[in-house]
Specification:
single chain
Length: 95
Amino acid sequence: MSAIGYVTHNPQTDTFKGSLRTLTIATGIEIMPNKDKMDERQPDYRVITDQGFELGAAWRKTGKQSGKEYVRLTFSAPELGRRIFANLGPAAGTA
């Protein structure tokens, strides 16, 4: 599976900071907790670019087989052409 970005988690603030790179987008991103969450259907995180645009959202999930927690992201922007779904996971060789 291809990596379209890399982030580092700050456990004190529960934020992720890094970069997103596709054929048409190259930007820094921050994945920050959704402080306005009022309902389980709303995202746990917001994905914001360095330019301050909201590019997507993310939810905490638990793997059905592994039982491990992960973060599921969705990105949407005209430049992407369609919605992109991705999972945060450890970089190859680090887990």
